[in-house]
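Sequence of YtxH domain-containing protein (Kribbella sancticallisti).
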Amino acid sequence: MRRIFWLVVGIAVGVYAVTRLKKRAQVLAPESLQQSAEKVASAIRHFGDEVRAGMAERETELRDALGIDTATETDTASKREDYR
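Predicted 3D structure, token representation.
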């Protein structure tokens, strides 16, 4: 009776270990890593867009608060090169 019990316990542990290893192998597969990298790149791009939008909004607020004329700024901005 003991042998059968330990045989069943061993089989259950073996099946559990194999299924966990298969799941881990799928997570580490190249396709999964590619998808993870794309998600991170997309999140970084989105963060950069949000920062730029916030900067533009804040610049507008500061210009209004300081009374800086935007017409003179657009003239000088057209003379400068965009280095992006």
